[in-house]
Design brief:
About 50% of the residues lie in helices and about 5% in strands. It is built from 6 helices and 2 strands, in the order αααββααα. A two-stranded antiparallel sheet has the order 1-2. Strand 1 and strand 2 form a beta hairpin. Helix 1 packs across helix 3, helix 1 packs across helix 4 and helix 1 packs across helix 6. The longest helix is centred in the C-terminal third of the chain and has 16 residues.
Length: about 140
């Protein structure tokens, strides 16, 4: 499993919105500048989140984007499941795709399913708020005498 650029940029965009949640609606160009991501690329990611009610949107000169809920309500797993085709290490681990002809005899299937479960549990245990707090703690402890 490899997280795509779309997934990584989506996380950075939502993390930026979480970090600036008290600043009102944030223009996409501001996020693009702070995150050093092409505005055009972010424009391709936005529809994914508009469909899923993750973002609130206001059009116009004072418009922009805001998280619909507080950052502690968004997990990395939820976000990546929207942007990635799959988080499974192999297609048969999800159990939703067509069964492999070897699935009944596959010695590795439980390994792949366990890895998939672990990936989901790990990513579902991290919220945007957790990341913000880790970042804040890292910068708080970064001092020079």
């Amino acid at each position: 499993m490899k997280i795509s650029t779309k997934g990584r940029y989506a996380l950075r965009m939502l993390l930026d919105l979480a970090e600036h949640q008290n600043c009102g609606y944030i223009a996409l160009k501001d996020i693009a500048e702070r995150q050093n991501i092409s505005k055009k690329y972010l424009e391709q990611i936005i529809p994914i989140f508009n469909k899923s009610n993750i973002l609130k949107t206001v059009r116009g000169s004072q418009g922009g984007y805001q998280l619909s809920k507080t950052p502690d309500k968004y997990t990395v797993g939820d976000i990546l499941r929207l942007t990635e085709v799959s988080l499974a290490p192999v297609s048969c681990a999800e159990g939703e795709s067509e069964e492999c002809e070897r699935s009944t005899d596959c010695a590795m299937l439980p390994v792949w399913q366990g890895l998939y479960r672990t990936i989901n549990e790990y990513l579902d245990g991290i919220t945007l708020q957790d990341i913000l707090e880790q970042q804040k703690e890292r910068y708080t402890n970064d001092y020079v005498i």
